[in-house]
Amino acid sequence: MNPATSRPGTVRTLIAAAVVIPLAWLTLQLGRVDGDIGAPTGPERLIEAIDDAPALPVAAGGQARAALHDRPIDGRAYRVLAQVAQSNGDQQQAGRLYAIAAERWPRDRIAQAALVDRAFAEGDIDRGLTHLDALLRVAPRLRPALLGGLMPYLGDTEMRAGLVQRLAQDPPWRAAMIAPLLAETTPVEPAQTLLAELAATGPLSERELHARVSLLDRAGRAADARQVWLQTLAVDDRAAAGLVFDGGFEHPGVTGGYGWQYDNPPAGVAIGPDPTDPLSGEYALSIVFDGRAVRFAHLRQPLALAPGRYQLQAAAWQSINTSRPFVWQLSCSVGTGGVLAELPLGAAPVWTSVKTAFDVPPGCERQQLQLRHTARSLAERTIRGSIQLDETFITKLP
Q1: Angle at 49 between CA 40 and CA 146, to 5 degrees
Q2: Residue-wise DSSP of 232-290
Q3: Which residues, 6+ apart, have CB-to-CB distance to 310 below 8 Å?
Q4: For the whole model, what pTM was predicted?
Q5: Per-residue pLDDT tens over the stretch 277-316
Q6: How are strands ordered across the β-sheet holding 308-320?
Q7: What is the dihedral of CA 183, 185, 190, 192, to 10 degrees?
Q8: Which of 142, 199, 128, 195 has its CA nearest to residue 173?
């Protein structure tokens, strides 16, 4: 709507007269830019026609120059001229024109992609990453493929340092790095090194920390992975970090990682904190069975014990119709060593503490502590009642 219609009297007349010519010119330009009928004449439609063609049109150079005549600052037209120069074998001129295109129209994906390729081909990693940063910002859908393509080169210190420098500035594509870093085809050690170097520049996000834990685990560095996992926890929760995390079951909100894992119990089994009558603290862990047949081995925790001699101790209160004991089983989950210890729990409806010594051999970098019911038959697996657990600790022996 003409803004002059909102002004009264003479002022309205003067403003209307003043805007007649600009509005006529603007109408013409909008028709040239946005019109959807007739041959493309405006700069917008000229460039779109070139980009929509299956191959670079023969007349592309002339159309780009026509677009520049109407819009001299249109970097996309310079990019088309660069494509023409490249198709004619004039790489020097193409490079110069691509640079002008990106400077004048930074959101042009084709220009930025071309400059990425040219910089990396010339061995200029810093310049290539600068244009890649620009491309990743304007082309979100390309992030998985573009970042995935960088993963084989993370072992190059210059490439990794350049990525860390840009990631530290928290670009909008930072979160998209996580999936390619965790891909099975990505080299583990350079990927976790990148996250370690990024951590040195500032705090990692929760997802980045969990990605680093996963990569350290895959690299066989369980102790380092556990330390990084602890960084993801609140300060109060970290206080429960003995050799067994939260052996007193006082932090039920912390599960997964190097904590207790019981989020997928079988049908007929309920697992959760129980404040009714713990041996110590505010909670025990209660496991309730409703009488179905189950192969129970659904409470576990990864450990990262160094080679040496240890003692496992645990307390239990049990009221279950079973003749087979529940046992804590400690075994190597990475490396060699197999089962390191088995500790049967007391079967009485009173708190009973038990303990056993065991050795962790060299080469057993990661272990798993798991509660198992030792039933052998269908009848023995059909159980009803509950068991409460508390004070499950490991201590280092001399």
Answers
A1: 155
A2: TS-HHHHTTBSSSBTTT---TT--STTS-B-SSPPTTEEEEEE-SS-SSSS-EEEEEEE
A3: 243, 357, 358, 359, 360, 394, 395, 396, 397
A4: 0.76
A5: 999 999 999 999 999 999 999 999 999 999 999 999 999 9
A6: 269-274, 284-293, 382-396, 308-320, 352-360
A7: 30
A8: 142
- Interatomic CA distance for residues 387 and 277, integer angstroms: 12
Model confidence pLDDT, tens digit, residues 81-115? 989 999 999 999 999 999 999 999 999 999 999 99
d(CA 269, CA 113): 55
Handedness of CA 373, 378, 380, 386 (dihedral sign): positive
Strand order across the 299-303 sheet: 299-303, 366-373, 326-334, 339-344
Query: How far apart (Å, rounded) are the C-alpha atoms in residues 157 and 155?
Result: 6
Instruction: With CA atoms as reference, report the closest residue to 336 among 314, 310, 309, 307.
Output: 307
Sign of the torsion formed by the C-alpha atoms of 324, 325, 328 and 330: negative
Indicate if the alpha-carbon torsion angle 354, 230, 233, 154 is positive or negative: negative
CB 368 within 8 A of CB 330: yes
Contact present, 343 and 312 (Cβ < 8 Å): yes
Q: What's the rounded Cα separation, in Å, for the pair 219 and 333?
A: 14
Place of tokens 């042009």: 108
Grouping H, G, I as helix, E, B as strand and the rest as coil, residue 315 is: strand
Per the document, the length of the chain is: 398
Which residues have CB under 8 Å from 275's CB, separation 6+?
282, 283
| Torsion angles phi and psi, residue 274, rounded to 5 | -135, 115
Output helix, strand, coil percentages for the chain, rounded to the nearest 5. Answer: 45, 20, 35
